Amino acid sequence: xxxxRAQLGGPxxxxxxxEVRDLYEEAASVAPVSRRAGxxxxxxxVERLIKLLDPDAPRKADKLDHRIERIRGRVSPxxxxxxxxxxxxxxxxxxxxxxxAELVVLALDDKEGPQLLELLLDTANDLVDELITKPxxxxxxxxxxxxxxxxxxxxxxxAAKDGRSTSS
Length: 168
Description:
mainly alpha
């Protein structure tokens, strides 16, 4: 069947930047034909997204593992762990070895491979949700709070950070 073209994973997150969305869609469409290429492109998608989310990374953070470490504290632990899974699976899938890593064997497996590839792609969507959508939504609602309440809440946070107590 040529049309509609089969693909793995859900649609890209609505807030995904365009240049990342194109790579995501390429990974999703190539994955049913070549899971090895799909894994490598899912990794490239995450890398491009992280570069956009952390544009001020120092030169030494050019490697994806360094970039992941820089944003690890800004994402939930499950997403942080999946970033490592995406990086390792994409790298190992791209660099063919006589004795491939277990994740690559799973990615290439006819039964478990598509499910793993969908998880790799979902990680890009999860990253967009945690680092773009949620902060944008939160800031929209925060701006709707009356300035006096914003100031009171900020004072409470500052006091907690300094170890002081405040009454609310």
